[in-house]
Amino acid sequence: MASLNSDLIYEVLAVVDEIPKGKVATYGQIARLIGRDKNSRLVGKVLSISEYYGKYPCHRVVNHQGRLAPHWNEQKDLLIAEGVTFKSNGCVNLKLHQWDC
DNA sequence: AGACTGACGATCC
DNA sequence: GGGATCGCCAGTC
Q1: Is residue A54 part of a domain?
Q2: Which residues form a coiled coil (predicted)?
Q3: Are A12 and A34 contacting, i.e. CB atoms less than 8 angstroms apart?
Q4: How is residue A20 annotated by DSSP?
């Protein structure tokens, strides 16, 4: 079981749940919103266990490169289903779909 | 307590 | 613009 701080998990998932459909946010963006801009890696770790805590649109979270989770294969398909476009190299068009907060 | 790891970010080349 | 390297903070061993 993932033993991370409940507060951190709650904050991250709360922000992730606020991401509008068809938009994507970076880990750093979320980390900054919860007051932990340097802890972007923790955000990813929280998302890795998010499914254990509940249903959240964690597929709308990508890194600042527009790259998807390295240990996930459905994420790209889920985003495409929401209308998010990808570049030839498989990266998300952050320029078009990055969540403007 | 100490060292290694990581769903990242920024900078450098 | 893309790839490689260093740096951050917390978590896990």
Answers
A1: yes
A2: none
A3: yes
A4: P
pLDDT digits (tens, 9 = 90+) for A22-72: 999 999 999 999 999 999 999 999 999 999 999 999 999 999 999 999 889
Range of the domain at A20: 6-97
**What's the CA–C1' distance between A17 and B2, in Å?**
37
Query: Domain of A65: which CATH number?
Result: 1.10.10.10
Question: Which residue's CA shows the smallest distance to C1' of C3?
Answer: A65
The C1' atom of C10 and the CA atom of A85 lie apart, in whole Å, by 33
Within a domain: A68: yes
Positions of strand C less than 7 angstroms from a protein CB: 2-3, 8-12
CA atom of A18 to C1′ atom of B5, Å: 30
Number of domains into which chain A is organized = 1
